[in-house]
Amino acid sequence: MDPEYYQTGRLSESSDVFSFGVVLLEVATGESPTLPGQGHINQRVKQKIATGNVGSIADSRLGSAYDISSMWKVIDTAVMCTADSTAQRPTMATVVIQLKESLALEETREKGSSNRVSRGSDVEAMASTLGPFAR
């Protein structure tokens, strides 16, 4: 939940940006927002960013099936969305631009790889293999 919501008791567009950032972090890392004894996902990711190894942040189920620059852009965008101060968070319009840039990087990587199946097939295969996750 947006830290400023706790202080003001009011939700805003910036609160939505914060929540969306948490969802992005969940998707990118494959982790729950909170883990017992490990704190909130945005704090865990910020600690891992210091290592400079996107592989330590990205969902391990992805293996190496992603563009590193694309993943960094998603993670950077999500971290900006989850900034403690609403003034430091991007607008959703900026988030959309960042995610489109990330997608373009991934699509370029996929076009350059002749042994890749389509992205839709990858997603379907992952969903059928992994199934839903308990919360």
From TrEMBL:
GO terms for molecular function: protein kinase activity. InterPro entries: Kinase-like_dom_sf (IPR011009), Ser-Thr/Tyr_kinase_cat_dom (IPR001245). It holds the Pfam family PK_Tyr_Ser-Thr. Gene3D superfamilies: Transferase(Phosphotransferase) domain 1. The keyword Aminoacyl-tRNA synthetase does not apply. Residues 1-98 form the Serine-threonine/tyrosine-protein kinase catalytic domain. Signal peptide: none annotated. Keywords: Kinase, Receptor, Transferase. This is Putative LRR receptor-like serine/threonine-protein kinase. It comes from Zea mays.
